[in-house]
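Good morning,

Attaching, inline, the backbone tokens for the sequence recovery test we're adding to the shared suite. The designed sequence is right after.
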């Protein structure tokens, strides 16, 4: 049993909270604190990661998933903690844009790199927001965008079946969500201009 407390918490979403693993600072634990009536996001995300594993994807732009652990707050799902090469916290893409840490040319290159990864590995980035992507310095002055959340379908229903077995449908959805993501990138940039 792993004991978590508020000091370990690093982020809170609409259904899950993220905690630094108290025994391994290179990992985080996602805990469901508000489950919807039909879906446990940890269970769904774990199943989606298992599907990706079967495809033999690389984890260059995703954290690895290590499975479930028992905690004092309930069952948690363990992932790599995405930080900079020097151990400092990596900002979200949204924060990098808002604080003007990323140039226009670098943004275009990083987005192209991420899109190539998503397309080649058929990654469904469902919740395609700039807060679900980290702007990570993987080596001195070398950056990469890493998707940390919002992967796979929202529910285990007929669409889940379509994503899994009907490739044209999955490809269509991936393209659609990428457009949503680019729109959200532009919105973040507009917020910078409005300040």
């Amino acid at each position: 049993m792993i004991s978590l407390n508020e000091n370990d918490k690093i982020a809170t979403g609409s259904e899950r909270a993220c905690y630094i693993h108290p025994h391994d600072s290179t990992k985080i634990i996602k805990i469901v604190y508000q489950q919807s009536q039909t879906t446990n996001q940890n269970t769904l995300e774990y199943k989606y990661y298992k599907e990706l594993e079967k495809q033999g994807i690389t984890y260059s732009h995703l954290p690895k998933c290590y499975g479930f652990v028992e905690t004092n707050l309930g069952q948690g799902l363990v992932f790599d903690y995405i930080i900079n090469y020097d151990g400092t916290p990596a900002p979200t893409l949204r924060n990098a844009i808002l604080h003007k840490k990323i140039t226009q040319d670098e943004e275009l290159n990083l987005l192209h790199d991420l899109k190539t990864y998503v397309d080649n590995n058929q990654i469904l980035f469902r919740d395609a927001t700039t807060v679900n992507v980290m702007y990570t310095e993987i080596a001195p002055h070398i950056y990469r965008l890493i998707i940390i959340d919002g992967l796979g379908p929202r529910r285990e229903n007929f669409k889940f079946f379509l994503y899994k077995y009907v490739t044209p449908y999955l490809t269509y959805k991936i393209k659609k969500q990428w457009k949503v993501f680019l729109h959200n990138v532009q919105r973040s940039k507009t917020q910078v201009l409005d300040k």
